[in-house]
Amino acid sequence: MTTISTPRLADLTVGDVVAEGAFPLTRDSLVHYAGASGDFNPIHYRDDVAVSVGLPGVLAHGMLTMGFAVQPVVDWAGDPGRIVDYQVRFTRPVLVPADGEAVVTVVARVGALDLDAGIARIDLTVSSGEVTVLGKAQARVHLV
Amino acid sequence: MSVNPELQGRVFPPVAPYLVGREKVREFARAVFATSPINLDPEAARAAGYADVVAPPTFAVVVQEATLAQLLAEPDAGIDFTRVVHGDQRFSFTRPIVAGDELTATLLVATVKSLGGHSMVTAVSTIVDASGAHVVTATSTLVVRGDE
Fold first, then answer.
1. How far apart are the first and last CA of chain B?
2. Is B76 left (phi over 0), alpha (psi -120 to 50) or beta?
3. Is the pLDDT of residue A11 over 70?
4. CA pair distance B141, B122, nearest whole angstrom
5. pTM for the complete prediction?
6. Residue A87's domain spans which residues?
7. Contact, B36 vs A79, CB < 8 A?
8. CB A90 within 8 A of CB A104
9. Looking at beta carbons, which residues of chain A come within 8 Å of B33?
10. What is the 3-state secondary structure (H, E, C) of chain A?
């Protein structure tokens, strides 16, 4: 494991890419998240139920996407406790095929810096294919 | 049936306390692809100054969930859960959730708005620890689709 040093606010510039990630989601990922979170809505694991409510297929839990999208920022910050605020808008669902994977990519950029408060706002671009799946995805990170 | 506008401003009774277990935190962390040792390894968490493993930021939804269940079950709410879409979500922390915490969540329906046949309900769940100190506020906007 590499040693993580905490980033310093003074070293950051708005627009900097500070972290990136790619998350291949399979049905196994969704079942695992269902059990871990307690969200057993069957649209996240049963094709017949998803189709019966008018969806094109099984979708990833929005909260799963929100959950992993911040992880590149956690790793960059070095401590999950540095995330003091995190918000997203669920704009497009992530369809996960039964026999393959849907890759969700994350690019984390510095959106704003508040030196007095010691907060960096990190803006996340979260996409699957060419489609943005989370809007206004922002994590506020306490740094010194 | 549409969402009852009188829900706005309603505060619900606190839900039963949620005891945060170490293995639940680790299970949740793996499910959201967390790799930070502070989420997974009690020794690493202690070395970073925490009493035990730290939950990933979105773990708060597990504690919040019981308050949303209260809202959907409210007899006069008029919320048909089959028409509910999660619009947005926010977590605002005073401190992170740590294994061993006993957390209590209290729901406030902050706003109920109508927009083009749909309703938007903003649910604010305030989560405090056993001493009553604030840990995190979880805010969900639920979009309730109107009859087509």
1. 12
2. alpha
3. yes
4. 4
5. 0.96
6. 9-26+61-142
7. yes
8. no
9. 23, 67-68, 71
10. CCCCCCCCHHHCCCCCEEEEEEEEECHHHHHHHHHHHCCCCHHHCCHHHHHHCCCCCCECCHHHHHHHHCHHHHHHHCCHHHEEEEEEEECCCCECCCCCCEEEEEEEEEEEEECCCCEEEEEEEEEECCEEEEEEEEEEEECC
| Mutate which: B20, B58, B137, vs A, most A CBs within 10 A | B58
The minimum CA-CA distance between A44 and chain B, rounded to whole Å, is 14
Q: What radius of gyration do chain A's Cα atoms show?
A: 17
The 10s digit of each residue's pLDDT in B37-75 is: 999 999 999 999 999 999 999 999 999 999 999 999 999
* Domains located in chain B, CATH noted: 5-20+57-144 (3.10.129.10)
Optimal mutation site among B32, B81, B140, interface A, most CBs of chain A within 10 A = B32
Rounded Cα distance between A144 and B3, Å, is: 45
**How many interchain CB pairs under 8 A, A with B?**
108
**ipTM value for the complex:** 0.96
Question: How many independent structural domains does chain A possess?
Answer: 1
